[in-house]
Amino acid sequence: MNSIARYLQDELPRINAFLDAQAAGLDPVVRPAAQHVLGAGGKRLRPLLALVTARALGCTADPYPMACSLELLHSATLLHDDILDAAVMRRGRAAAHVEFGRTETILAGDALLALANKLVADYGIPRMNAVLSEAILRTVTGEIMEIASVRDTAMSQERYYEIITGKTAYLFQGACECGAILSGRGEAAERAAHDYGLNLGIAFQLVDDALDYVSPSEVMGKPSGGDLREGKMTLPLILHLRSLAPQARQELEARIAKDELDAGAARGVADAVAASGCAEATREAARVYAARAAQALDAFPGGQERDLMADILELVLSRNK
What pTM was estimated for this model as a whole? Predict the structure, then answer.
């Protein structure tokens, strides 16, 4: 994936400089929390996707405000999610609400959300505003559904896919589709960008959920089996529960529902999930969605950015952290 590293080497300073400038203009009450989450790093995958999609389709407008708006939106969700999850760490450092307080952090998330909308609105392209607004709504809906489904051991795979499509994939889709809209290449290009981004986002979350059951805490920056301890019903756990004998399944479901798994017990279940092949089965599901995203790339003209979009798919599938 050297092509991605080279591209990021050029783009990351520009993305980060834009984000730093935007955060510096916020009110002093919320600025520290916003700078904290933006300065924690991250893959910058959403702005990268917006940039490469726009350029792959021959965009001549300045794509940075649009691209960086997606990182602002993502950062806003992280600030709010950490409060909802009572998370104390984010990307190897204290979560913003621990450092700066709940009120300031909630307001910082609101400010980043408003700022992202303004950056896109300044282009004066109603279609782009509509796509971004829909992505925000779908993301929030997915997060609400996830909270409502905590410790629901009867949750179906269908509902799981609804959750991850909402909470993760729609921001990927919004990044790519907004890039296509800014290029002005028309509805066919926008549909292809939509399909690429949405399927990539689903694949990304599937891999992320699989990693929680196989990655040591020092790699992931969170306790191994963390999703399990939080009561999140992700696909590896859903598949594992279905694979158990009735009595063993009932016993484990009862412990999950009653929040009776401490760190050691969660680690033991996580090991069992990995040993049963359910984490790998989740990765296999990710490959199916990545293949759909790759098919959508057939509509893109050849060139460096299209090749990079294919490389991003491979990177998502090969992630180990």
Answer: 0.94
